[in-house]
Amino acid sequence: MPVLDAHTHVFPPELIEKRHLIASTEGGFALLYGSGRSRMADGPALASYMENEGIDRAVAVSFPFEDEGLIRAANDYVLDVAKTDKRVLPFVTIDLRGGRSAVAEAERCCGLGARGVGELAYYKEGFGERERTGLEGLARFMEQKGMLLMLHVNEQVGHNYPGKARIDFAQVVSFVQAHPGLKLILAHMGGGICFYEFMPEVREAFSNVYYDLAAAPFLYSRELYAFVARFLAGKVLFGSDYPLLTLARYKADLESLDDETRRKVLHDNGRRLFGA
User: Fold this and answer.
1) How confident is the model at residue 239 (pLDDT cuts 50, 70, 90)?
2) What's the mean per-residue pLDDT of the chain?
3) Using CA atoms, how far apart are residues 222 and 255, in angstroms rounded to an integer?
4) Span 69-123, pLDDT tens digits
5) 8 A C-beta contact, residue 266 and residue 54
6) What is the DSSP secondary structure assignment for residue 45, as one 8-state letter?
7) Which residues pair with 99 in a beta bridge?
8) Which of 24, 72, 89, 236 has a Cα-to-Cα distance from 183 of 20 to 30 A?
9) What is the crossing angle of helices 169-178 and 136-145, to 10°?
10) Predicted pLDDT of residue 99
11) For residue 179, what is the DSSP state?
């Protein structure tokens, strides 16, 4: 069965080497990668993962740095990886403070082959009204260009971990409603916002919203997959969150799905969304 991994992370080797220096000035990065225990991967490492575990296509995402130089370096590297390895679908990052620089960087990268923007994450400040309004200009541009947006949304209860942020679900819904033509991936099963699709008005507004399974083994029990099969079979993407986890960590849970749903989650939904 073909596999499309919709959520992997890559970094330029020179940024991996300077991780501790970068962590001293980048608060969000420090939360996730300041410790030497957190794995980071470059393009060749991603290629090895794909070959070792039978991944046919992979979405490679960047990191939402604050420094514009780091943003550009990370984006150029992701785009170069995709140029070298046609199996890779590149997503780029922007300045989360929004404004013209965010749209300009998205426009530059779109012209160089970027398929989307993400994974955008507000690890320090959380996501509220200010963050939502800051994305408006970018979202309008992406709607026009047909680009996809991947937004980090973590759950609001349960155990704490580095980078877990306060997310105002009402603001996420408002953002989706304001941009009906924007195709969105809400990472990590949208932090559980997917369960609100039982509300008809949310279900209608979320017609272009997809979810990925990134880090699901750390967050949810296997019963999640029965929920996916029954209610969200056409909207969930397999995403490993590599190098945090690999496909192997998900295989037992994925085997609980019927063949049709497993094929949708592992490949068909992603192929339809990415045109890949």
Assistant:
1) very high
2) 96
3) 10
4) 999 999 999 999 999 999 999 999 999 987 788 999 999 999 999 999 999 999 9
5) no
6) H
7) none
8) 72
9) 40
10) 76
11) -
Amino acid at 223: E
Q: What is the DSSP string of 96-115?
A: TT-SHHHHHHHHHHHHTT--
| 179: Cα separation from own chain's centroid | 18
Residue 134's pLDDT band (boundaries 50, 70, 90)? very high
Structure tokens at 93: 């990052």
Dihedral, CA atoms, 8, 14, 17, 19, nearest 10 degrees? -60
Separation CA 207–CA 192 (nearest Å): 16
Q: Are 57 and 4 in contact (CB under 8 A)?
A: yes
Alpha-carbon span 195 to 156, nearest angstrom: 13
Residue 100 phi/psi, 5-degree rounding, is -65, -35
Q: Which domains are delineated in the chain?
A: 4-274 (3.20.20.140)
Distance between CA atoms of residues 92 and 78, nearest Å:
7
Checking if the pLDDT of 147 tops 80, the result is yes
* Two structure tokens written together for 179: 């941009």
